[in-house]
Design brief:
about 35% helix, about 15% strand, eight-stranded parallel barrel, single chain, about 280 residues, 8 strands, globular, alpha/beta
Length: about 280
């Protein structure tokens, strides 16, 4: 990163239409990691996996935590997909998280140079957090509040979350890009991660048909029963993902470490890789 904060976002980001293949990891922040741990692990993602982003998952409600995320990402040279976390228990905590994040994005001078986008999530439609019209309204409001810092807004969601609400086209119309949970083990037709491409294609094609050509990311991709085979399969379809509308589809491995979500981590609880993991970042 430059030694001083730039004056403008002009020519700062690579265009979204150039992004595809492996992008980075979902990274759970429920533990409220220290600044030192964030720096260490963000740098690991950048240096050892060629990750371009971390996609935040969960929530840390400590004051100033997102400023630590920004500082760590700045030092590591990595971007962030930030998250307004609804959780799984209902309640209105997400509203304070929304306000806190939007405040940090507008007040921290580095934040707009680190934050590639803001997500409402995780799976607010599937989890019945808000009616889809209200969620669309929240997206539009956040877009308005972040327009001056040039940060786009999306929703982190399953295809089924949209489909069981008649497509929720108002949400798809409101978001700037499409963050897709690609979790084939939810399907009644699931077999193994290595054979999941037809299920991936089905959901991918649904978003192509209804997404108005918007950029797509698999922001939460995993298959808990066969992670390694699933990631190998996604990597083997790099050219298929590259040829998708919007300049291709990028994907995030869910999740960085077993310490963050048991059963899903690429690293085990002892800090060792559970399997060989070197997906391509281009093809």
């Amino acid at each position: 990163m430059p030694s001083t904060v730039p004056d403008t976002l002009d020519n700062w980001w690579c265009p979204m239409h150039s992004e595809y293949a492996f992008l980075g990891f979902s990274y759970e922040i429920t533990a409220c990691q220290s600044l030192g741990q964030l720096k260490k692990e963000f740098s690991d993602i950048r240096d050892n996996f060629n990750g371009r982003y971390v996609r935040l998952y969960g929530a840390c409600d400590n004051p100033g935590f997102y400023d630590d995320v920004v500082d760590a990402a700045w030092e590591a040279g990595i971007g962030v997909h930030a998250l307004i976390w609804f959780g799984f228990d209902g309640g209105n905590e997400w509203q304070a998280r929304r306000d806190s994040l939007i405040s940090a994005l507008n007040s921290n001078p580095k934040a707009k140079f680190i934050t590639r986008g803001v997500q409402f999530g995780s799976e607010p439609l599937f989890d019945n957090v808000l009616p889809h019209a209200e969620l669309a309204s929240q997206v539009l409001s956040a877009k308005s509040q972040l327009a001056s810092v040039g940060i786009p807004v999306t929703v982190s969601e399953l295809a089924f979350g949209y489909q069981e609400r008649g497509g929720a086209q108002d949400v798809l119309n409101a978001i700037d890009f499409i963050n897709i949970h690609m979790l084939p083990f939810f399907s009644s037709q699931a077999t193994t991660g290595g054979d999941a491409w037809p299920l991936v294609q089905t959901d991918m094609n649904w978003f192509i048909q209804h997404g108005n050509g918007k950029k797509m990311y698999f922001d939460e991709a995993t298959d808990i029963s066969s992670e390694s085979a699933y990631y190998t399969m996604l990597d083997s379809h790099c050219k298929d993902l590259k040829n998708a509308p919007g300049g291709g589809i990028g994907w995030f491995a869910h999740i960085y470490s077993e310490h963050q979500e048991t059963g899903y981590g690429v690293y085990d609880s002892n800090g060792q890789l559970k399997f060989n993991f070197k997906p391509r970042t281009s093809c």
